[in-house]
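Human: If only I could read backbone structure tokens as easily as an amino acid sequence. Take your time, and here it is.
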Amino acid sequence: MLRPVEGCIRGPAFLHEPEDEPPPSRKMKHRTVWISDIHLGTPGCNADMLLDFLKSIRPETLYLVGDIIDGWKLKRGWYWPARHNDIVRRILKMAAQGTRVIYIPGNHDEMLRPYAGLSLGGVEIALEVVHTTADGRRLLVCHGDEFDAVVLYHRWLAWAGDIGYEALLKLNVQFNRLRLLLGLPYWSISAHIKKRVKNAVAFIGRFEQAVADAARMRGLDGVVCGHIHSAEIRDFSGITYLNDGDWVESCTALVEHGDGRMEIIDWAARTREAAHIDKASPLQPAALAA
């Protein structure tokens, strides 16, 4: 049983402060939302886009599927802008407003794994969870690093790879700052490169198969994970593999609708579409007049 941490019943003042957000009636209502690989504490985190997404949803349950905080990066040097505090506050506020929030630590925030079974600020911490969908399917929810042989058996290589990946994400940040100056929407150069590297594609395929096989061996219907920053819904001979993606490259989330239907929300794509509509809107009255 989860043990609540003692504290003020009312909670911190910021939980009750008004914010610039859509009214509850205009928020997207999902039964469940899964997000992972936010990597708070790194320049690559798309905090503005994530905060916009979190303010637009009102789920019954929110799963934080690992690598929410990047402890590896914070050990090498402190980086924590105010916007990252805003993400933490938004999640705590959602928990205070009735959303069940479950945090499953990953390899980058493994320092929280010893606290599994506790509830901190209304956020439940667990190593893994079996989630039952509205249509009765049982899904294993885990970060996924336990199926990554590099992380498990070659930790030094994982750290080296993380440093190289961090450099690629810094390039991605600078690239998108330039696009912003040019009036162009967000586009991930790092995700584009990864999808076209043969070895990365092969690794993703092996990872997805291994995770699906683990769910099958446990008699479950599927699995939800993160870790590899690649959103996907696939069927492996009757086992449903679902990956919610990340918020440093693709900016995606996985959602469950009221009937159990699963969908990947590409928030970066929605932002691009909204920017395109806003850019075209001044022309609409003239077009209607014609």
